[in-house]
Every structure is written in C-alpha cells, then in structure tokens.
Specification:
Layout lengths: L10 E5 L3 H7 L4 H21 L4 E8 L7 H24 L2 E6 L7 H13 L6 E9 L1 H15 L5 H7 L10 E4 L18 E4 L9 H12 L9 H9 L1
Parallel strand pairs: 1-2, 1-5, 2-4, 3-4, 5-6
Length: about 240
C-alpha cells in the first residue's frame, strides 16, 4: 500500500560510496574515483532540483575517513578546495543554497574560510538546500548537541537535542540512499534517520545516474510511511 505522503521525498540523504572501487576496477588511483564522484554529485544535484526535491544531504567526508592513507586524505582535501572554486558559482546560478555540516575545528583555516564563503555566496538561494557533510559523524553530532545544551544549562530532552543538531535547519530525511552495495549507514545522520526509508543500490557512486535516482524514487513512492501508526490510521489521515 502506498501512502500519499510518500510520492516524492522532500529530503534525500545519500552515502556516496564506491568511488575507490570504481577507480580500482579501472586500474586507476583512488583519487580518480573521487574526481568522478564529483561529476556524479553534480548530476545528482541537478536531477534532484529538477524533480522538486527540497533538501539533498550528502556524506562527503566522515570523521573516520582521516584514517585512510595520507595520500588519499590530502587528495580529498585538494579536491574539495577545487570543487569550491568551480562548483559554487554554478550552485548560486542554479538557486542551490549550500550548507557544510560537520566539525570544522579539524580543518585548516583556509578550508574553513572557503566553506564559510561558499555558504555566504549561496545564502539567498531558495530552490533547494544542499547539505554537504564534511568531517561529520552521527555520534559527533549527537555529542555536540548535548554539549550545547549543557553549556546553556538546558535540560537534555528529545526536543531540545533535536533543535541543537547540526541539521536542525532542515526536516529529517525522508529517504536515505547508499550506493556501492553495502547495507549500513556508517555513522551517518544517526539521529535524523530514525524514520527514514532506506534504499541500497549496488551501483558504485560514479555510476549512479538519473535513471538510478529514479529507481530509488520509485521504490520510495511504493512504500507506506507509518511512523509507528497502523495502516488503518494512516489511511484515515490520508482520507482527511
């Protein structure tokens, strides 16, 4: 049974997995896969905006990714710097508002300035919000929210934590997509995805195109979102 509210997700979150394996299969360095992954992200942003998605949140660099080989980490930092220079003007032109979500304290001052400038340059856009989770972890997010409340002397309640989370500026994801064949969420949006619909694709992220996105959207549209209620309750609400 399909719930009418599940026709099109307002907020899509994506774990963009498989860049390194994509490159390895082609006997290329892993960073080449990440470069191709940027192309796939550009395509996905455009496709989501065209389909009327309100928020897209992507996992670009996790707090655990610092443990990868130094060469790959430095390459990812360089790739982010280049992407800021090249992509932000296009995002601004396309009406996309950019937010970077994560622990900026672990980034260089130059990178921090670049992220802040990119956000400022797109602050007036209203077509779609793009959250890029960079140096982000779901456990970090919950911990930093709790720390905020303690510092303010506020009681730690579910509602208060929700307001203090790093993505409090948007509604929780309706649909979480993970590419690359793995079926886990890897410390991504642990709080926000409590009731998200999960969709796992075997496609590696560089191969995730518009057709693959539409397959995920079709799967989402066929689901009934109950949020703890029964099907009969959902049907009554939908009927008005």
């Amino acid at each position: 049974m399909t719930s009418p509210s599940a026709a099109m997700p307002h907020h899509i979150a994506i774990v963009m997995d498989g860049n390194g394996r994509w490159a390895k299969r082609r006997l290329m360095p892993r960073i080449a896969g990440h470069r191709q992954g940027v192309e796939s992200l550009r395509r996905c942003i455009r496709a989501c905006a065209e389909r009327g998605v309100g928020v897209l949140t992507v996992f670009a660099f996790s707090s655990e990714n610092w443990n990868r080989p130094e060469e790959e980490v430095s390459g990812l930092m360089e790739l982010m710097g280049k992407a800021l220079t090249r992509e932000v003007p296009e995002l601004r032109k396309g009406g996309i508002r950019l937010h970077f979500v994560g622990d900026r304290g672990g980034l260089s001052e130059r990178m921090q300035r670049g992220l802040a400038q990119a956000e400022a340059d797109t602050a007036d856009n209203g077509r779609m919000v793009l959250n890029v989770c960079f140096n982000y972890g779901g456990r970090w997010d919950i911990a930093q929210a709790a720390s905020k409340l303690v510092a303010r002397g506020e009681p730690i309640t579910e509602a208060a934590l929700d307001r203090a989370m790093a993505l409090a500026h948007v509604a929780d994801p309706d649909l979480l997509i993970r590419t690359g064949g793995e079926q886990r969420i890897s410390n991504f949006l642990l709080w926000q995805c409590a009731y998200s619909e999960l969709y796992f694709s075997d496609r590696l992220w560089p191969d995730f195109d518009e057709a693959a996105l539409d397959e995920a959207l079709a799967s989402y549209a066929a689901r009934e979102r109950r949020f703890g209620q029964t099907s009969e309750q959902v049907a009554r609400v939908a009927a008005g």
